[in-house]
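Page 42, continued from yesterday. The earlier attempt failed because a stray header line got pasted into the input along with the sequence. Redoing it now with the clean sequence only.
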Amino acid sequence: MTRLFSLEYARSLDAADPLRRFREAFLFPEPAGPGPVVYFTGNSLGLQPRGVRKAVEQELDDWARYGVEGHFKAATPWVSYHEVLIPPLAELIGAREAEVTAMNALTVNLHLLMASFYRPTPNRYKIVIDPNAFPSDRYAVASQLRFHGYDPDEALMIAPADEQGRLDHPALYRLLEEEGPRIAMLLMGGVNYYTGQVLDMPTITRRAHAQGIMVGFDLAHAAGNIPLALHDWGVDFAAWCSYKYLNGGPGGVAGAFVHQKHLGRADIPRFEGWWGHDKASRFRMPERFVPLPTVEAWQLSNVPILLMAALRPSLALFQQAGMERLRAKSLMMWDYFYALLKDIGDPRLEVITPLEPEAHGCQLSLRIREVGHPAYEALTRADVYVDWRSPDVIRAAPVPLYNSFEDIYHFAERLQRILKSL
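This time it went through. Structure tokens are written below.
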């Protein structure tokens, strides 16, 4: 063991952490054993900020006090509630405010955006997705292809992977050059849910656009995890959920991005609903739809107030902490985590997440050969929250907003003890 593998060293790193106070803003599960709990599943469901209960109760109180008039008399009027989420979301994903809104759920938003940006022709109709794409993305893309009359077995292209199942960027660029005239759209996860790989989104976007291909990203594992610059990168569209790194609660409201170059264009098809209609005349109930000049034109329905209220406290914490500072801490935590895993020295243990700082977020995907699932079960019994992905991967995500270096030490110490027993 190196000197890094000690509780004292981990606590010294926490003592020097300028963001350590944010941990107290979150509620952790109760330990089943002697503790402490190690919660490394913020990549599946973020912890609850302490301010959520008050924020939701405010809307319940306003509902009780005002009834329908809460749309205009609530402390934050419901009729425009989503607008308070737009500035912090735009800041998090590197967008202009006109390009961002909060609405629906992630896969719903992907379908709505693909309805606008997947416009196949007889010669250009294929869609490229990343290797190990999240199943919901694959299902959504395959169903879009079938809806337009194409066979996914022929029209759905899986981008090339390396031996670890990660996207092979050079091979993808060759594919785009060779098949570009037949590819209509590229839809990829900004951070792969399985391997934790961060894709080179600006280069992918540039290379795809050079071939006339529309580019969209699922940012479920990227928003709140890594710095983003969607506007500057020229990404055509994107969507993300809020219940992972953004701590918006189970089933939390999702987000959508459409680049400014597409806003206000009459030649882009779109499914429409009354919440995308011009705000000045919305309640006059006109027969003809007049789209808003922002991404809000893609909104369909009245907003889910309680879900949005649950998201606000977390977004406020992100604004206080700052994404650049969170990223700096995340990289330090990742390096410390990796160093302790190397110290364990078990040949059955392998990190399949890329080692390069620019190619990973906070998640480490650990392949544990032979004893992976027993190790996962033992970690669960030891109050370690991680998740299992078949056939042999444990995903662990130390989130810089609320996790500590001490958490990483406890994870490594418990994993080492478990592997020795197996």
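Notes: The chain has a mean pLDDT of 97.
Reminder to self: strip header lines before submitting.
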